[in-house]
Each structure stands twice: as structure tokens, then as C-alpha cells.
Amino acid sequence: MVSPYREVLPTTLVEDANEDAPLASIVVSGRTGQRGRDGADGAAGSGYGAHGQDGRDAGPAERGQDAGEIRLGLSDTDGLVILSGEQVSANGEQRPIRHSFVSVTSGFIELRALGGTGGHGGHGGVGGNGAGGRSGSDATRWSRGGDGGPGGDGGDGGNATSGADGGSGGAITVEVSDADTPLLMLVDHDVSGGEGGAPGRNGAGGAGGSGGRGGDSYSWTETESYTDSNGDHQTRSTYHSNPGGSRGPSGRQGRSGNARVSNGARGNRGRFEIRVATESGVKSYASRYDLRLVQFRHDSLNQDCVYEPGELARVFGIVVKNVGGMPTPAKDDLQLSLVAKGWVLPEPGELLCPPGLAPNVCHEMAGELTFRIKEFEPTSPGDPLEAEESILHRALLPSVHRAFADYQRLDALKAGAFVVRFPVRTSEVRNLRSLAAGDATRIKFTLVNQSRLALGARSDTKRVVRARIATAADSELDDEHVRFLVDGKEILPSEGWTFDIDVLGAGEEMALELALRVGDDAPEYRRYAGMLTLEIGRLDEPARPKTAQLRALDVRVARPFRTGECDLLLVVNHRTTREEVAAWEALASELAVSMAIWDLSLERHLDLEIPVADGKTLRDLIGRGSIAILDNEIDGSDGPTYPHAFLCPHQALRAAQTGIDIAYFGKGLALEQALVPVQGESVTHEVCRRYWLRFWAKPNARWLARRAAQFSERLAIENPEQRHIVVHRFEPRVISSFLWMKRWRVGTLETRRTLDTAEGALIRVALSDETLHDPAFAISPDATTALLLLLDFDAKLERLRKLGAGDSRDPLTIDRVVDLLLCDLADEVAAVFGAGSRIGRDQLGRLMPRLAALSASQLRAQFGTPLGDSLVRLASGLLFLAQSQIRLVEHIPPVRWTRRSPAVAAHIRDHIDEFLMIAFGAHNLKLMREQVRAGVKGLRFEHKVDGRGRSKPSRRDWALERFRQPLAAQHITSDVEVLTTPAGRVLAEAEYTAISDDKARQTIRRGALQVGAARAHDDLVV
Predict the structure, then answer these.
(1) Nearest-angstrom CA–CA distance, 447 and 444
(2) What is d(CA 117, CA 266) in angstroms, rounded to the nearest whole number?
(3) DSSP letter, residue 478
(4) How many angstroms separate the CA atoms of 145 and 869, rounded?
(5) Alpha carbon 180 to chain centroid distance?
(6) DSSP code for 954
(7) What distance in Å separates the CA atoms of residue 861 and residue 338, rounded to the nearest whole number?
(8) When comparing pLDDT for 873 and 285, which is higher?
(9) Is the link from the previous residue into 894 a cis peptide, with omega within 30 of 0?
(10) Which residues are paired to 700 by β-bridges?
(11) How far apart, in whole angstroms, are the C-alpha atoms of residue 328 and residue 395?
């Protein structure tokens, strides 16, 4: 967060705007030269085999016209500026100049004698295309086909011409008297030569004509009769043909124009001359005078090396230089002043540069300029004031009210840089952010004198320095529940604690400390907010203080962890409000979930494997429960951090593998990396390859990667309910060789098992801190869905049993639990149906534990009640899901007897019957089957309707998408949605190493956070 005190102000000089309309405009610029004539395109060949005509060459471009001449006289008569003289146009036309205007503070006299732009070169003509050749004659019975005639040649392209040169700039002469040289500040002239013209483009050659088509062939058959050796009459046919002709040769492509063309040259610059009539004669100059700031110095008037708000500062040692071509006006002082901008408020007064400063001569000004730094008083807590600023200068010629452009540049801009700050600042306030009721914390901070003068009431400067801490306006706790402790005495926070500094030496620091205790009956998760105010005496009234800096401190009353079994552990922190906690508790109550609080800021760690009570770890106490982490930004021992950084990534994965579900609400972490185990058991397989005869052949990494993908696919088929990470390491070496045979050890495949495919044990709910801190989120459908996703399948069934115990329960909540049960079952069904090999019915029980848990759940309901309707919907959805996964061909014998899908569907139907029989009674089984079939029919119709107007999804894909809708929210991600395919679970060694290194850094970071939190506690606890 950017401190409200820090301001970075621009340091570039903003010049006076002289962009008004011209006071007068005299233009004698040359015109643009005519572009070269384009060459005519050649005509195409007009008869069989005729050649195309050549394109014509382009004509030359015209040179830009030279500019004319301006002879201008300037004079000033009692504030009336008179222009006289003569102008000669580029065409030689002479006209007098007669113009006058009243002197104003802006605008300029525009004098333009620009050379004309050179004409563009002409384009060469395109050559004509050659005509096609004559077709050959067709073959006859008596002659072969004739060949096609040759195509005509394409015509050559014409040559382009170069761009013409620009015209020369004209001549401008300005004549003034010695007394009127200030008027030269009004002149804006330009005598540049014209730009050269662009070159033309050579013409392309015409295409050669295609050769004529060869004549067609001719075939015929002759039949004759004869008597064979037996005396019988016979006939026989003889096939004859004459070949067709060949296609004629194509004509030659015409040559493109080959002229070497170029841009025209820029015209010569014209001449500008200033003639000044003096008592000793006329003097001529090539340019006007121009003033430039060379250097200067500045400091604060009290010389404490600190530029503080309200202080006077001086600018001295100003050196200027005439960088123009003539002396500055002989009778006019140049006025030097400061520019009011940003923090700089110039005091009245200016310096006068003496007149007649010769070209290339520097002058150091006597005297100094002063400015006051803008006042400032902080209105919100933050870092000390550190605002960058620069002192900007201006040089003005008063007689014509014009400032010199580019007066302050480069080094002169840098010389004016300074930083606005107060002489004293305070560090951040250090205190424990969370306290249990009845506990106390030290409050520590440090004052720093960043000037070179001593401060304090008894110092030579007599400037008081005072620190005061009192209750802030937004505090939720008051004197009833909070006390300050200073030297064994209690102080009411509303009255505040004040400390006056006697002497704080130059550059010295002073550490200050007091304590804060919350009462035994302080309400949980209410916040005490305090404000540290740092004051310093004013420059003109040292005993009268003003605010220099504000710092905030806050302490929240936290709930200590209470041991005991719970379904959900909610991890909160010092930024969690009472309203948030109440909303999460209300949600847990609604879902019949027992919840415990773990305050990370109070407990100082989130280690699941160290004892926290009676030798038991958090993992022991949670059992197969869940952890929800409110992952907003918090204050760590070394700066801002997030709660997820306190949870070891290896511990999180181990906990998820043992049945503890973890959800991150807020920033969270990347689940793809979290699912990659880098510790624990692994299996390594060597991969070898033998080459016969090809003794020169060597294995490559791509081949090993393909083997890894095949191996991952095989693991998924053999164990569809499991996920294995496969890491391939390419380490080729020859292990045996005989004659022309070589056997290579290509590398290794390392496998590590991660969470099962249908686990759903890691969840990330991506939220902004603002949304997370809104109590309305905790009772939103998304939060309810995420919390229910945390519960394992058995726990969801138990929630459904409790929620359906009375008719007063919210039917919407019951439906949400059913949706999530179907979501879990969809993951399990997809994993089993996704494997391609045949599987025995005895293995289905192992692969589908959730289905078995559903049929054995002993849920009971009455038909027509909210719970009963939900159970029917659950059974209908499960049956539709099973039927949708069977492909059409798998319904046909004998395929249906050999494939896995029909067997899995039959297994699911059996469990549905068992579930319905227990839930509604055996005597209602037939009725309930009918209700379930009706539900399946409704889902089929829903699929049909949903597919209209777009490419219709298959029923198989639609069913999985339909029942995974609780995971469809963009900000809710479960581990079942990542690493879904065998190919996605294959990693190269470099990828795996990067993930491993990142987790190692996370582990180191976690250790540093825990150590820092422990040290801060030891230092600050009372």
C-alpha cells in the first residue's frame, strides 16, 4: 500500500505557453515540386503467342522551389510594435510589409522561408502480359495431334525515377535598432531547406503467356472376320490410337525495371541575419541572444539539512550564460525568478541579470531567491512524509513579457531536486496483534532525528518533540475493556499517554515503550484501535507543536484454541472481525457442523504435527475433520504475508491423504503444485532400450517422455481411483554392447502417489480481501457449497440426516447437500467408467466406496417430505449418471457382457434399489422405482432442451457437467478439477525440480515466519 504521505511530483519544467495564434505571419516558402510522370503500362499481347509490350519509363520529378526573401524591420513606439519592410515570394513577386499591433504578453511573429519539398519520383509502367499460344490440332485416324504453340513473352517493366531535391531555404533579414533588440524575442523564424522527394517504383515485368494446349489424341477399333483352323467363322477387334500433341512452352516473364532510384536530397538551409543599428554603425548577427541557467545552489534557512513543510529555503550562487549569437539587450535587465509549482511557493522578489551580456559569457548573480515550502499536516496514518520535488527557474525579458525557452535543462534541473520531510519521524508501532482476554502486550516504537540539529524542549533549537498515543475514532473497544500501563500505573486510553522529549541529538534515535492490557471480560474479536501522533514545534514558535506523522496500532481480542473434537477448524487472524466469526458460526450451525477457532495471530503457527494439547497435534485433534483457512493479507514478522504461508505444503498434502480436507478462502495457492508430492515413498523404474544393427543410434528425451505418458496411462487403467505423479529423468548411458548391438539405460520413471481421483480434499475459493471480510460472504451459497465440499462423503450423509430430522429445516440447504453428494458420486463414477479394461464385480466395491456408503447409510424418509423428495432426486441423478456413461454399442450383446460400463451400471442399480428399500421400506420399492425412472426421464428431457440452439453435448459429457455444477463457479476450484488426465500427471525432471525447489522455499519461509512470530511474542508479551 502506498503511503498517503509519499508524493512524487514532476520535475520537468513547464514552459510558458507561446502556442497562441501568430501576431503576424509572413510566409515566402517555395512550392512542392511536381511528381514525376508515371510510365504507361504495356499492352498485353493481342494474338496467339504475341509478346506483351514493354512498360514505359517514368518521367523526372521536379525539384522543390527555392524560398523567397523577407526583409523585416521591427520598431516599438510607445507600446505599438511596427513591422515594415519587403517580402519577395518564391516566384519573385515583391510586396511591401506594413503591419502593427499592440504589444501583448503572448503570441509571436511567424517568419517562414522554407524550401519546397522535392517532387516524388514517377513509377515505371508495368510490362504487358504475353498472349497464350495457339492450341495444337487434334489427332485423327490418319495423323497424330499437333503440339501447342509457344506463349508470348511478357513485356519488360519501365524504369522509375528518383525523387527530386528539395528547394533551398530563403533569406530572412530582421533589422532593429539597438534599443529595440528586445523585440527579437517575438520572432519565430524558419529557413530550413525542403525535404527531398520519395523515389518511384520500378515497373514489374509482364507475365509470360501460357503455352498452347496440345491436340487431343484419337482412338478407334477395327473388327475383322476370319476362318479358324477348324473351319469356323470368327471375328477379332484391334485397338488403334494416335497420340495427342504436347502443350507448348510458356513465354518468358518480363524483366522488372532496373533503374537505381533514391530519395531526393534535402535542400540547403537558407540564411537568417539580424542587423542591429547602433551609434557606431550596423552590426550583423546569425542568431538571437539566448539565456541558459548553468548552475545554482540551495539550502534551508535554518541549515538543518531538512526541507520541511512551512520552511523558508534560499537559492543562491545562480550562474547564467548567454548561449545565443548576439549580446542581450543593452538597456533591459533580464528578470530571474522561481516558478510556483508543487511544494514550491516563491517569495516576492527577483534577481536582475545585467544588460548587454556578450555571447558565450557566464555571469554569477549576486543575491538570492527564496521560497516557502507548502504546509502539510497528515490526516491518516502511514509512513513519514518523503516527497520529491525540484526547484524550477524562469528568465523573463520584462519589456516584451517573454520568457526564454529551455532556460533550465538537464543538470540545472537535477540541481534543483530536494525531498520534503520533517526533521523527526517515527518507526512503525510494534505490538502483538491478537490478545486473549486478560492478556497484555508491549507497545514499542522509535523516534529518529533525521536533521543535523538537536531537537527537544531543552535543546538549543527549543523545538518541542512530543509523542502521544490515544484511542482512535474507529476503535471498537473503549476504556471499559482496555488500559495503558506505564511505570506500573494504569492510564485511560481515551485520555491518552503523552511523552515529551527533552533532547534528541542530531541523527539520534530514541526507543519508547508502554503496555496495553485488555480486560478479562473484553468481547472476542473486537478491535482496539489507537493512534500514535508525533508532534514537533513550529519553526517560528518552537514551543507550539504541529503534527508531523501519524501511526496506527491495533489489537484484536482473540479466542484461544479450545481442545476437543470438531468437524471444522476455522483458521482466523488479527484482521478477522467479530461479524465474520459470527457469520461462519451461523453457517456451521445451519449445516449442523461443530466448529472450533484457531487464531493464527494468537497461536503464532499452523503446524499440524507439533503437540498443542496433552501431547496431541492439531491433526490428531481434527481427526477426519476439515480446515478452513481465511487467507487474507496479515502482518507478518517481516512484513505483509498470508496465512497459507504458515502451513507446510508437505503437511497439507499428508493431511489431505489421511482424510483432513483443507479449504483456502482468499488468496490461496496453486492446487496443481500442491498436489505434487516431493516427500514420502516413491517407486523408481529403470527404462532401457536396445538397438540392433543401428550401432550409431542414441535415445532421446522425447522417446522417454512418450514412455512416461504410456506408463501413466497404464497406471490409470489399472488403478482408476488413484492418481500417480510420473517424473521422467533422461540420463542416457550404455550398459552393454556386443558387435552391432547396444543396450542403453535411457533414464528412470519415478512415481509418487497423490490424492485419489475422487478425493476433493483440497479446495481453493479465490476471493479478494474485501469480499472475504464481508460477513455476507460467509452465509452466501458459495461459502455454503465450499464448506460442504470440505466434508467427506460420510459427513455429508450425516449432515443430510440431521438437516432432514425436522420439517422446519430449510429445503434449500437440504438440496445443496444432495447436489454435493451427487458431485462426489459423479467424480467416483467418472473415475471407474474412465478406465478401459474389464473389471470384476468384486473390485467395484473397492473402487466405489461412496456408492457403498450411500446404500448403507440407513437414511429414512417419508415420501412427499423435503427429505424424501431430495432422496428421490439423489437416486434419479445417480441412475441417470450411470446410464449416460454407457455407449450405444455397449448395449448390444455380446459387447454388453464383456465391457466394464454395463457391469458398473448394473452394480449402481443394485445399490440404488438397496438405498431406496432402506429409505422408504421394501413395500414402497416398486413405487419408488417409478419415481426414480420419472426423474431420469426428466433429466433426459433437460439434456434434450439444453442442447437446442448450439452444438449438442453428448449425454455422457452433459451428465458429468450437470452434476459437477457446484464446482462450476470460477472462483471455486477442487483438486478433482486438476491433474485430471494421465498425461497431465507426467512431469519432466526440470518441472518437478522447480516444484520441489518452490516447496523447499515455502518450507524455509514458513520456518522464518514461525521463528519471527515467536521472537516477537517473547519480546512483546507482558
Answers:
(1) 10
(2) 8
(3) -
(4) 88
(5) 60
(6) P
(7) 88
(8) 285
(9) yes
(10) none
(11) 12
The pLDDT, as a whole number, for residue 814 is: 82
Q: Where are the beta strands (DSSP E) in 286-392?
A: 291-300, 312-322, 334-338, 344-346, 351-353, 362-364, 368-373, 387-390
- With contact defined as beta carbons under 8 Å apart, do 249 and 150 qualify? yes
Distance CA 73, CA 85 (A): 6
Helix (H) or strand (E) holding 82: strand 80-88
Q: Is 474 helix (H, G, I), strand (E, B) or coil?
A: coil
From the centroid of its chain, how far is CA 778?
29
Are the CB atoms for 496 and 469 separated by under 8 Å? yes
The pair phi, psi for residue 710, each rounded to 5°, is: -65, -40
Instruction: Tell me if 213 sits within 8 A of 190, measured CB to CB.
Output: no
- Main-chain phi, psi angles of 739, to 5 degrees: 50, -115
Distant-in-sequence, close-in-space partners of 169: CB < 8 Å, separation ≥ 6: 67, 113, 114, 115, 190, 191, 192, 193, 194, 267, 268, 269, 270, 271
Alpha-carbon distances, residue 716 vs 534, 835, 879 (angstroms):
66, 7, 25
Q: What is the pLDDT of residue 961?
A: 79
Distance (Å, rounded) from C-alpha 465 to C-alpha 547? 10
Of 909, 803, 814, nearest to 869 by C-alpha is 814
At a CB cut-off of 8 Å and minimum separation 6, what does 782 contact?
Answer: 765, 969, 971, 972
Cβ atoms within 10 Å of 122's Cβ, excluding its own: 28
| Geometric angle at alpha carbon 297, from 291 and 301, rounded to 5° | 130
SS (H, E, C) 23-57: CEEEECCCCCCCCCCCCCCCCCCCCCCCCCCCCCC
Query: For residues 754 and 789, what is the distance between their CA atoms, to the nearest angstrom?
Result: 19
Between these two residues, 632 and 839, which has the higher pLDDT value?
Answer: 632
Which tens digits make up the pLDDT trace of 853-892?
888 888 888 887 888 888 898 899 889 888 887 766 565 5
Q: Torsion-angle region of residue 700: left (phi > 0), alpha (psi -120 to 50) or beta?
A: beta
Give, as one character, the DSSP assignment of residue 693. Answer: S
Task: Specify the amino acid at residue 208.
Answer: G
Residue 392's closest CA among 319, 304, 328, 315? Answer: 315
**Cell 519415478 maps to which residue?**
750
Alpha carbon dihedral 556, 560, 566, 570, in 10-degree steps, equals 20
Q: Measured between alpha carbons, how far is residue 312 from residues 304, 345, 373 in Å?
A: 12, 9, 6
Asked if pLDDT for residue 776 goes beyond 50, the answer is yes
Please give the pLDDT value at position 804. Answer: 74
Q: How far apart are CA 183 and CA 163, in angstroms?
A: 40
- Which cell numbers in the block locate residue 889? 454399442
Cβ count within 10 A of residue 921: 14
DSSP code of residue 544: S
Place of cell 534528541: 504
As given in the structure block, the three cell numbers for residue 77 are 513606439
Q: What H or E segment, with its residue span, contains residue 784?
A: helix 781-790
* Pairing label, strands 724-738, 986-988: parallel
pLDDT, tens digit (0-9, with 9 covering 90-100), for 990-1002? 999 999 999 999 9
The mean pLDDT of 452-467, rounded to a whole number, is: 96
Helical residues (DSSP H) of 739-778, grouped into ranges = 769-772, 775-778
Helix, coil or strand: residue 227: strand
Counting Cα atoms < 13 Å in the Cβ hemisphere of 948 gives 4
Q: Could you tell me the end-to-end alpha-carbon distance of the chain, in angstroms, rounded to an integer? A: 31
Q: What is the DSSP string of 893-937?
A: TTHHHHSHHHHHHHHHHHHHHHHHHHHH-GGGHHHHHHHHHHHHH
Q: What is the DSSP letter of 407?
A: -
Task: Render pLDDT for 466-485 as a digit per residue (tens, 0 to 9).
Answer: 999 999 999 999 999 999 99
Side chain identity at residue 403, one-letter code: A
Is 90 exceeded by the pLDDT of residue 692?
no
Whole-model pTM? 0.74
1018 burial via Cβ count (<10 Å: 0-12, 13-18, 19+): exposed
Task: Determine the Cα–Cα distance for residues 345 and 38; give it in Å rounded to an integer.
Answer: 65
Which grid cell sits at 930? 417409478
Distance from C-alpha of 309 to C-alpha of 300, rounded to nearest angstrom = 11
Q: All 3 cell numbers of residue 202?
A: 520500378
